[in-house]
Amino acid sequence: MKAVSRAFALVALTVATVASAQDYQDTTPYVVDSAKYPYTIYPSSTDLNNTVPWETQVLPFNPSATYTQVEQDTVVDSEATLLSADKLFDINTGKPVLDFVQATIPEANTPNVPPPSETPPTQTGAGKNLIGQMAATPVSVSYQRTELYGNSLFGAGYNVNTSVTATPANGSVAKKEEAVAEGRVYGTVFNIQKDLVRGRASVCGQQGGCNSGTAALYALGSQIWSANLAGSFAPTPINWSRTFFSVSKTFVVGPVPVTVKALLSGGVKMTVTGQVNPALASITAATGAWANVVASAAVNVIIASFGVSGSLALVNATAQAAASLGWSLCTPTWSLKANLSLTALSGTLKAFVKIGVLFFSKTWNVTIASWSGISKSLTLLNASGAISSLGC
Questions:
Q1: Which of 87, 117, 129, 227 sits between 20 and 30 A of 35, alpha carbons compared?
Q2: Does residue 127 or residue 8 have the better pLDDT?
Q3: Please, are residues 199 and 183 in contact by the beta-carbon 8 Å criterion?
Q4: CA-to-CA distance for 119 and 163, rounded, in angstroms?
């Protein structure tokens, strides 16, 4: 009876956690209404309360004047009509509050990314030299696909890459089979795009040579896990929570520059299975990441109140890649597969400021993200074939 090789994989935990989330800045301010409220740099702790005039023309704005109750009502009602604002009342002061939507910026829900990039299964290499003699020239078959969603303010995407390589025998060197599977998940916040996760696994089979492989997982470009692969392998799946990075960007909300800080946190995951021996290199790797945006706000002026409301689920995606190359007879056979499961861009974020205007207050609201959600579950590739004329 033929002995059965059982699975094993030596796992090395490289970095359990990223020491601290990286902080970035998008230094270009977003000016919502440049004609009415241009970008202005105020001295620190400037008090804007009772200095920003109302827009209605029924009565002139004069911070030193005293207005009768009738005049106050006239101004508030006219301003509410002019702005299509909701007229509320402050529970603490009893003063009117005019709450209105200043803008939903175009980037809040407008996709603006390049079309998907895909290279179908492509064979490269010859296997023989120019006069038809056998030579140790590798022949590869590879596939890749990249796709992005959203835009430069908030976006997500993935890349999947899989390949096999057959190298003919040459003299005393036996034929060799190699298989590679790789997946990435991207996240974009305020013009900063990063690899949230990258997972790569590769194996090599050869009589008297390599019969092993490696798997590695990266978060933001730093390796956080690795495993040595041999025989029939299935390392313990990875599923780790983590904070990725934050980006700050200034939005001019009403007359106030508001610095919105978007913190991206979630987790990474990876599973690897397969088999490697002198006649087979086979691997399946599923790499995934999920990330949500938590936003906060800061200003350097004195106003009644400010902040960011809402939440945004940026991405939850798994890109699975599989590659197999068998060479038990004289013609190696290959298969490449790729699958995607993705949900992205779901939720709303609004920045707001509230300023006191003598006998009432005004609240400006700017929607900076408003996505209804994207959902994909696709078989990207399921292809197979044979590489001829390589010999036994």
A1: 87
A2: 127
A3: yes
A4: 12
pLDDT of amino acid 92? 85
Please tell me the predicted confidence (pLDDT) of residue 135.
Answer: 54
pLDDT band at 370; cut points 50, 70, 90 = very high
Written in H, E and C, the secondary structure of the chain is: CCCCCCCEEEEECCCCCCCCCEEEEEEEEEECCCCCCCCCCCCCCEECCCCCCCCCCCCCCCCCCCCCHHHHHHHHHHHHHHHCCEEEECCCCCCEEEEEEEEECHHHCCCCCCCCEEEEEEEECCCECCCCCECCCCEEEEEEEEEEEECCCEEEEEEEEEEEEEECCECCECCEEEEEEEEEEEEEECCEEEEEEEEEEEEEEECCCCEEEEEEEEECCEEEEEEEEEEEECCCCEEEEEEEEEEEEEEEECCEEEEEEEEEEEEEEEEEEEEEECCEEEEEEEEEEEEEEEEEEECCEECCEEEEEEEEEEEEEEEEEEEEEECCCCCCEEEEEEEEEEEEEEEEEEEEEEEEECCEEEEEEEEEEEEEEEEEEEEEEEEEEECCCCCC
Location of structure tokens 């059965």:
4
Up-side HSE of residue 351: CA atoms within 13 Å toward CB? Answer: 29
Determine the Cα–Cα distance for residues 312 and 33; give it in Å rounded to an integer: 24
**CB burial class (10 A; 0-12, 13-18, 19+) of residue 107?**
middle
| Cα of 114 vs its chain's centroid, Å | 15
Distances from the Cα of 49 to the Cαs of 85, 90, 237, 355, 357, in angstroms?
A: 19, 16, 56, 5, 6
Q: Is the dihedral of CA 93, 95, 96, 99 positive or negative?
A: negative
Ranges of each domain in the chain: 8-15+23-386
Residue 31 and residue 38: Cα distance in Å, rounded?
Answer: 7
Residue 103, both tokens? 């803008």
Q: What pTM, to 2 d.p., does this model score?
A: 0.88
